[in-house]
Design brief:
Distance between the termini: 28 Å
CATH architecture of the largest domain: 3-Layer(aba) Sandwich
Shape: globular
Strand content: 15-25%
Structural class: alpha/beta
CATH topology of the largest domain: Rossmann fold
Radius of gyration: 23 Å
CATH class of the largest domain: Alpha Beta
Number of domains: 2
Number of strands: 14
Length: 426
């Protein structure tokens, strides 16, 4: 694919969308932060041959923790640098990898990409999931830098998008040396796009390896106390929610309170930009808002409060403190968020019909009797009530924890494949 033609196409797209991008930059600061790095003006690496790992956003950045740790053990003489795309991922990456170089991934303009490669000088690039850009891959191939897709996944919608590009997609997809896919289903989709089968491996889902199945009862109790949840109250959490799902949760909460007043609700929106919006929605329903970020305040809980999880990077511990979990992105056609996180903490899980992003994880939990799938929001109250008020709910939590423990092991396979490629390229 011609780099100049791609640059022209990107420029046309930016020009067409410039009013939107300009508004976002001025109103929210989005796209403005890290603009210099996105254009390739990153600080030069300390030495050549680093391992460059890229995680698009928060989920990928956190999923890479075990890979980064094991790669550093295997290659102590190589630096590991981390790039992300959005500012939320950047913030989490800097907090998670405090002693490592963290920067913004370049825009896929040929000069920005070339400038970044020139300054980073990687020995290998590891792309989490499927963040693939044509100019980026072309530059890696031209420089002889191997590229690995780790924890790869591709939805049917994503595969259709690649198919529309025809031979163009087949051409730039071939620039990846090895695709380490989460499941056989994803591997088959990739092969259907023309990727040679010898470039595809099934390594499993590394997100399972990052999930701790240990439960710290003291920490959970402390978090509950900080949020004003009494010991005899059941805490229901809606994790990684999207617009429209908070309404369903508040409807379900009202029904739960009618039958049992000793129930509390914690809502954790997927995106921090929606914290104030969700707070307003909660208040419009007549509830007080208790913000998790203000956990130190001394106020007697009324029981009619709704807790707003307005902090970042804390969802794992909030799941641990809850009694049952609804996982967002699943009542709307988004594809679902990671339902394995609450399952790992032994919590019964509820999710909606849209779980295209996690088909195997959702099927695994359903088969284990660890989760309940509902058709729409009207079923949410009944599903949550069954989780917190029946022996089956506790059994579902135990089953989920066991299922997560059995699914671990993808990190070791991933690091072995990366080591093999590094060995060949040296």
């Amino acid at each position: 694919m011609n780099a100049l033609l791609l640059d022209f196409a990107y420029a046309c797209g930016l020009t067409a969308g410039s009013p939107y991008f300009l508004f976002k930059m001025l109103a929210t600061g989005k796209y403005r932060e890290g603009l210099g790095q996105r254009l390739g003006f990153v600080e030069a690496a300390r030495r050549d041959g680093c391992i460059w790992l890229h995680g698009v956003s928060v989920g990928e950045v956190l999923a890479a923790r075990t890979i980064v740790a094991d790669l550093q053990k295997a290659f102590p003489d190589r630096d590991i640098v981390i790039s992300t795309t959005p500012s939320t991922g950047q913030a989490i990456a800097k907090r998670t990898y405090r002693d490592r170089k963290v920067f913004y991934f370049p825009l896929d303009f040929s000069r920005a990409v070339a400038r970044t490669f020139r300054r980073i000088k990687p020995g290998i690039v590891v792309l989490m999931e499927m963040e693939i850009w044509p100019n980026f891959l072309a530059r890696a191939v031209a420089l002889g830098v191997p590229v690995v897709v780790a924890n790869g996944r591709i939805t049917e919608k994503g595969a259709k998008g690649y198919r529309r590009l025809g031979s163009l997609a087949k051409g730039f997809l071939s620039g990846v040396d090895v695709y380490l896919m989460q499941t056989g289903r994803y591997a088959e989709r990739l092969e259907s796009l023309g990727v040679p089968p010898e470039k595809i491996r099934v390594a499993g889902n590394v997100k399972f390896d990052t999930l701790s199945t240990d439960v710290d009862a003291k920490r959970a109790l402390l978090i509950r106390e900080q949020m004003g949840v009494k010991r005899d109250e059941k805490l229901v959490i809606g994790g990684s929610t999207h617009a429209g799902e908070e309404d369903a949760l508040l409807d379900a909460y009202a029904r739960l309170r009618q039958s049992d007043g000793k129930v509390r609700l914690l809502i954790v929106p997927r995106h921090d930009t929606r914290f104030n919006e969700v707070a307003g929605l909660i208040e419009s329903r007549g509830y007080k808002v208790r913000r998790r970020s203000l956990a130190g305040r001394r106020e007697e809980p009324t029981g009619a409060e709704v807790i707003l999880g307005d902090t970042m990077g804390e969802l794992e511990w909030l799941y641990e403190a809850a009694d049952a979990a609804f996982v967002g992105g699943s009542l709307i056609p988004h594809g679902g968020q990671n339902m394995m996180e609450p399952a790992a903490k032994g919590k019964p899980v509820v999710f909606g019909p849209h779980v295209d992003n996690f088909p195997d994880a959702s099927e695994m939990l359903l088969a284990a009797g660890a989760a309940t799938q509902i058709a729409d929001g009207s079923r949410l109250a009944d599903a949550l009530a069954a989780c917190i008020a029946t022996p089956q709910g506790a059994a579902a939590g135990r089953a989920g924890r066991e299922a997560v423990a059995k699914a671990k092991g993808a990190t070791a396979k991933t690091v072995d494949y990366i080591a093999e490629i590094l060995g060949r390229s040296n």
